[in-house]
Write a structure and sequence with these properties.
elongated, 6 helices, Bacteriophage Mu GpT domain-containing protein, about 25% helix, 5-stranded mixed beta sheet, Phage_Mu_GpT, 4-stranded mixed beta sheet, alpha+beta
């Protein structure tokens, strides 16, 4: 191929199509546990997280909850991936082998929110949320009491989440969707000095925590007894006024180490030689290797 501006434009169109195909070929799972929140600035502040929504009988003046006491900020970060295609490969008509590379780069970009969201979930035992405590902690302040949403242990973590609400337990904050960027002008420095055309993807986003009340993390062994204890801890929660929060786990997130145990507990109809498994389909299993 004679490398001209027109030829490069056509090549870029082909690579962009490969990229878009790769981007849509991945079915991410982060949206099962996190809410997408659009962002228009470098960071978003979620001052309202400290006020669990609820109604009370209107007697006298309204009771206004202060939102400034529990400010929680999620700062967007820049992410990129770049590959180089030798100019000689274009001149020798070998560019066809690079189409799959563009598709692969797009697939990595499509999976990136999964990496962020589930990576943050795993880090919840050591990462603070809006109330200043770690997301999974045994001393969350609720009025004058302390509430736990965790089980200690030394094993691989497993996580119960209530995903029924508009704001799920985790937040995926999106400032800029993955964008395919070619650097192929014949006067570009990389082309001139290294005989290399460059193609990249960049995005701006972040992950953060929502309401800790909707999540329970455990590093204890995944057994029926430990699950029931976690279930009770979630469903018995009350707000500062003593009202029931009506939290119920709908999914369990597990890594490779707990996959078999989760399937035995929640996907097996009969146990013990024919007895009914009372936990069958109690929660949906989400297999996420990022929490392993």
């Amino acid at each position: 191929m004679i490398v001209t501006a027109a030829a490069l434009s056509a090549l870029n169109t082909g690579f962009r199509n490969d990229f878009n195909t790769g981007l849509t070929s991945i079915k991410p799972i982060w949206d099962k546990v996190a809410t997408r929140v659009p962002s228009t600035r470098s960071s978003n502040t979620y001052g309202w997280l400290g006020a669990w929504p609820g109604l009370r009988e209107w007697i006298g003046d309204r009771v206004v909850k202060s939102l400034s006491e529990s400010s929680y900020q999620i700062t967007n970060k820049d992410y990129e991936s770049t590959v180089g295609v030798p100019r000689n490969a274009i001149e020798d008509d070998e560019f066809g082998i690079y189409g799959p590379m563009m598709a692969s780069m797009a697939q990595v970009a499509a999976e990136h929110p999964d990496t962020l969201v589930f990576g943050l979930l795993k880090a919840g035992f050591t990462t603070p949320c809006y109330d200043g405590q770690n997301f999974f902690d045994d001393e969350h302040p609720v009025g004058k009491t302390k509430v736990s949403n965790m089980q200690a242990g030394g094993g691989e973590g497993w996580y119960l989440l209530d995903t029924r609400r508009s704001l799920k337990p985790l937040i995926f904050q999106e400032r800029k969707k993955p964008e395919f960027v070619p650097m192929t002008a014949l006067t570009d420095e990389a082309v001139f000095t290294a005989k290399e055309f460059r193609y990249g993807v960049d995005t701006r986003c972040a992950a953060g925590f929502g309401f800790w009340q909707l999540a329970f993390g455990s590093k204890a062994e995944l057994t029926a007894q430990n699950y029931e204890a976690a279930f009770e801890a979630m469903t018995s929660q009350r707000n500062e006024e003593g009202g029931v929060l009506n939290v119920r786990p709908t999914v369990i997130v597990v890594g490779p180490g707990n996959r078999a145990r989760a399937k035995k507990l929640f996907d097996t109809m009969l146990v013990g030689g024919g007895d009914t498994n009372t936990l069958y389909k109690d929660v949906e299993i989400i297999e996420a290797p990022w929490v392993g």
